[in-house]
Amino acid sequence: MAIFSYRLTSSVFWNLLLISLGATVFAVGVKAIAIPHEFVTGGISGVTLLIYYTTGLLSPGLWYLIINIPIFLVGWIYLSRRFFLYSLYGMAFVSLVMDLVNFTLPINEPILAVLAGGVLMGAGVGITLHSLGSTGGTDIIGIILNQKFSIRIGAFTFTFNLVVFCCSFAVLEMDLVLYSLFTSFISSQTLEYVLSMSNQRKMVFVISDHYTKIVNEIHTKLNRGATYLNGIGAYTGNEKRIILTVINTIQLKRLEEIVLVIDPDAFIIMENTFNVIGQGFSKRKMY
Length: 287
What we know:
It is built from eleven helices and four strands. The protein is of the alpha+beta class. A hairpin with a 6-residue loop joins strand 2 and strand 3. Helix 7 (138-149) crosses helix 8 (153-168). It is elongated, with a radius of gyration of 23 Å.
């Protein structure tokens, strides 16, 4: 099961599906909520909306495509082909859906629009980032700057968004800019939540004299690997074999049952991990 899951998440079909779904959710948030309320988003989509609001020319999707073209031309030089092609697909898909969405969600209260728009855009980006690509924009710029000049991606993104929102004061009324800032905050919180939903795993340490039997059960019933660590009891001075394994949250109760049925006196330590990369879990993105 773990091998199948790993192969699935590495497949072209799965990654294109994630990018398509995420790009659609994000584009709906922008086109059906942000634009009707004249909100500005962060990143390149924020620049897109500022230009669209100022000029009234073309369409948001077309502006998003035009602005991303020089970014991807530079990205072709510095990025891996796999990440580049997936991201190119994501960027083009966002542009397409932005122009295809011709409806407005019937949300009249600005604060509700802030919540709904932030959740949709954050969820969309989060779903996309579970793939081996992105939707272009500041993701591409940040990676290039990090590789060439060791500039942290988070610091660049924060600075870029700060400039976008400062420029918004020249185009939009102050209350709209403030609503936009709140939308961006909700979006970032939703993004973190979506990323943690599937990336978070449990790292478990088990100390027991029946370590061999427990590990065999982990292999056969949970289909997970395990590692032995050597330890010494501080009080007794006796050598101990410590079992280290990583599981998902669904398997946690099953692991507890396996261990405590074999050894009711076993000592179990569980710790949250934000991301696990390797066979059976996530595949590393190659930028």
